């Protein structure tokens, strides 16, 4: 393992970013292709050295809206301020920053977020960031939950409800743990209680490689199982503690754990999959639901930075 | 299997789009969520009924640029014409259309393209399209090829070089064939010979779930293998007929085959992975490479539609 480069803090290196790659030392330049940023073309420590919170989500629009929201919440917004996309020159991902908060889109699915995380981890490492918390804010299908409920992930589990991720390296399977930070999850739950604006639960999140057949939907282009098969699979998931289903949490948890990043997954459930597969709520209602993870995480960041009147110390 | 709805042509239904889902019959409305299009909100046969060619690619920008290019090539462009994104109201995918050609972005990775294809196949089905050809145009890493070489995929293979895709349905593995249309691949190779602008080969394409460790790169945030391990894995791939590596072809091939869509994968190799992992070519050179698949497919569509002076009948 490569030693972390971050400064020592409280006598320990334990909040530095790890990269586990001895080959990086011998590279004179590292170009983060999908961000269109590089160590020889950009001063990464100057651009990103102060980052303490990274929020990631699928949609570029939502991540731009998050940075506008958090700027306002932290009192860092200026009249008519625009937040330029830092990844200009590519449309693979979008990235925005205000103060200590970075907001990055990751597209849909494990491979898409995994490319982004490889480059994000190297970016934070090259920028010599320390003590970074990363939160995925997203949408999901709930199981046995009222639509609009926010789920903070306890464990990200696979399609047979195990907290692990199998990745293929040089043609061979490697199994990685998808453990998340339990303390951070509890802190986020407490934030929801502070806010008292919507319901939040802690539960397991199933992460799948497919939105239709992989999540037992009946409305894809293909479906070879019955409604009863679907209901019975979702009931099994519920019994295993699964409260929502999405498509990125497992590799997010595994990669953050390997890099020493404190990580959480906060997704709103847009519907109850036990009752249907398609979204029937209005555009406005769905829009309100989608803002809940960002409101929750915004409150958490404010608390951590002691911003606002009601200062709560951790 | 649900019977195809398409009109009979030459006494057979064999160019219609299949959906293999008996549940679709009982749905009064089908909302294609990630396209923001639905059967009760849009007249899909009127909007898409004439589609004969669908080109898909990762980047929304590239798919917009493709529709502008093909409009000009087919003589369908008008002065100052703008091509609005048909998927307005969502930033998950972008979709453009001119005449019989549809251009759709799919993001990066198997899960992302799989969501798009479920909804594209249902869209073509609801629109009662027939005789549709789908081509993925993309970028890839080459193996033993000069950068800029275009690869038309013979077989899409997995990380142990087998032409199949394992998908998880209700927690159980289902293996699907990733066979592509051999005749279409040969026709595309012939188009490259007609053009004589760049080199094109037919070869196997390895499809992975990860860009860094999954493709034996040495420059990710994590790497647990040596340069020798990498070289030996890529050499094995070459020996198995693999000429390039990308991240979408397997599920693209499998889903098109299940839907009776004539399908091809045409990707340019941006670098030779036997010689490195990072891109060192200039922006202009890479930009030129990225246009090659669209030039090749543009020529193919023109030939099929008998557009231009040098009419070639198939």
UniProtKB/TrEMBL annotation, chains A, B:
Q: What is its EC number?
A: 2.4.2.3
What keywords are annotated for this sequence in UniProt? Glycosyltransferase, Transferase
Keyword Glycosyltransferase appears in the UniProt entry: yes
PROSITE patterns hit by this protein:
PNP_UDP_1 (PS01232)
Pfam families reported in the protein's UniProt record: PNP_UDP_1
State its role. Catalyzes the reversible phosphorylytic cleavage of uridine to uracil and ribose-1-phosphate which can then be utilized as carbon and energy sources or in the rescue of pyrimidine bases for nucleotide synthesis. Shows broad substrate specificity and can also accept deoxyuridine and other analogous compounds.
Query: Catalytic activity annotated for this protein?
Result: uridine + phosphate = alpha-D-ribose 1-phosphate + uracil
Protein family according to the UniProt entry: Belongs to the PNP/UDP phosphorylase family.
Q: Which GO terms describe its cellular component?
A: cytosol
Report the protein name in the record. Answer: Uridine phosphorylase
Which organism does this record belong to?
Sinocyclocheilus grahami
């Amino acid at each position: 393992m490569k030693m972390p480069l971050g400064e020592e803090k409280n006598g320990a290196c334990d909040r530095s970013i790890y990269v586990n790659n001895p080959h990086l030392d011998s590279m004179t330049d590292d170009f983060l292709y999908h961000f269109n940023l590089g160590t020889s073309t950009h001063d990464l420590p100057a651009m990103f050295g102060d980052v303490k919170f990274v929020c990631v989500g699928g949609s570029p629009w939502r991540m731009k809206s998050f940075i506008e929201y958090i700027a306002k919440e932290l009192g860092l917004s200026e009249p008519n301020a625009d937040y330029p996309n830092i990844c200009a020159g590519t449309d693979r991902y979008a990235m925005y920053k205000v103060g200590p908060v970075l907001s990055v889109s990751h597209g849909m699915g494990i491979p898409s977020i995994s490319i982004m995380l490889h480059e994000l981890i190297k970016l934070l490492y090259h920028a010599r960031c320390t003590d970074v918390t990363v939160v995925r804010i997203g949408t999901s299908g709930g199981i046995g939950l009222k639509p609009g409920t926010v789920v903070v992930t306890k464990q990200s589990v696979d399609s047979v409800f195990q907290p692990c991720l199998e990745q293929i390296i040089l043609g061979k399977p490697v199994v990685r743990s998808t453990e998340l930070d339990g303390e951070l999850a509890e802190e986020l739950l407490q934030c929801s209680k502070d806010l008292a604006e919507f319901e939040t639960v802690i539960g397991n999140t199933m992460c799948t490689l497919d939105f239709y057949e992989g999540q037992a939907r009946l409305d894809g282009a293909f479906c070879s199982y019955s409604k009863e098969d679907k209901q019975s699979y979702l009931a099994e998931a519920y019994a295993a503690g699964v409260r929502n289903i999405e498509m990125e949490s497992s590799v997010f948890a595994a990669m953050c754990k390997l890099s020493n990043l404190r990580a959480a997954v906060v997704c709103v459930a847009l519907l109850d999959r036990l009752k249907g597969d398609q979204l029937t709520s209005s555009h406005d209602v769905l829009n309100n639901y989608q803002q809940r993870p960002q409101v929750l995480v915004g409150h958490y960041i404010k608390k951590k930075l002691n911003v606002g009147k009601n200062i709560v110390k951790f």
